[in-house]
Amino acid sequence: MSAATTVFAREASYTVGTFALAIGAAVSLVAWYLDDQDEPPYDDAGYAMLVGITGLATLAYAGMANDLFVLRGAGEIEIQTLRYIDWAVTTPLLVGYLAYAAQADRNTVLAVIVADLLMIVLGFVGVLQTGVLVYVFGGLSTVAYVALVYYLFGPLARNLRASAGADKWAVYAKLRNLIGLLWFVYPVVWVLSPPALDVLTRATTGVLITYMDVAAKLGFVLIATNTAGVFDGLLIGESDYETELEAEGERATPGAVGTETDD
Hints:
The protein is mainly alpha-helical. The chain has helices spanning 3-34, 44-65, 81-101, 106-127, 132-153, 155-163, 166-192, 202-228, 232-236, 238-252, 254-262, and strands at residues 70-72, 78-80.
């Protein structure tokens, strides 16, 4: 792949990512304005985290699209420092939102955020290394990822199962599985990337990471705002929405229907 094609593919993916994440930020802001719930995570704190996830990522990708703060090493090595700054800020917000939704205690929240930050920082240190140190720090970052997965699928899940209803559990499970599975692909891409086995080209690696990152953050925000229900009336029409709500109310109170039948 020529240098010009590499640059075009990289900048195009960053531009697409910028617009996609901006849509996510806009959706979060609108949902925040429309939603009048005050129960976690559908309150001001929860929506502030959702806006921060996609809003800050939008700024980072806009900067990457304009080639800002790029570290260039020997040969064709380029490190997008803005990507790691973005991850260091937005991924704690992602896992923090999950912990907030699970109503976890302070120690568990702290453990989740520390594991997440270690995963990012150790990964960044790894890409700055050469030789065996690349694998050492990459391996340590993966260990931190495993610890993070343990908390997402273990203590946080157990806490939510014990303290919340089936609806909140379903939302948490969807969000947890989204980032848990997508983040699992990152170590695989890293192992195949130029700093490690050099199977993937630099351009391919950058594009894959960008689209996985955008899919995780935009998907997270869309699922979270959709499950809040604030757009239901807008999406299916007000009359249909009211009919659906009435039907749900009847299903929730079967005794009322039985009383009418007896009369």
